[in-house]
Automatic annotation (TrEMBL):
It holds the Pfam family DUF6480. Keywords: Membrane, Transmembrane, Transmembrane helix. This is DUF6480 family protein. It comes from Amycolatopsis iheyensis. The lineage of its organism: Bacteria, Bacillati, Actinomycetota, Actinomycetes, Pseudonocardiales. Residues 28-46 have a biased composition (Polar residues). The chain crosses the membrane at residues 50-75. Residues 1-46 are annotated as: Disordered.
Length: 78
């Protein structure tokens, strides 16, 4: 089964004039369109990203300190 093409054949389209236009009254009225937002979007919090950066930095420093302590043997055989 062959699917129909997405664009109709211009020769068989009703009310289509020779230049490709349509006579007045042949098209439906414009539909209503909504542009923009219905209400302002809230600003995202700046606390959460900063908190995650600080926690990640602390974790990286702790792991680096552990590696240095193990390297110098400061942990006494752990």
């Amino acid at each position: 089964m062959t699917a129909t093409p997405p664009d109709p054949d211009p020769r068989r389209t009703p009310d289509l004039e020779a230049g490709g236009g349509v006579p007045p009254g042949s098209t439906p009225p414009d539909s209503a369109q909504t542009s923009g937002l219905s209400h302002p979007q809230p600003m995202p919090s700046k606390t959460t990203p900063v908190l995650w950066l600080v926690l990640t930095g602390v974790l990286v420093l702790m792991v680096a300190g552990l590696i240095v302590a193990l390297g110098f043997g400061w942990l006494g055989g752990v």
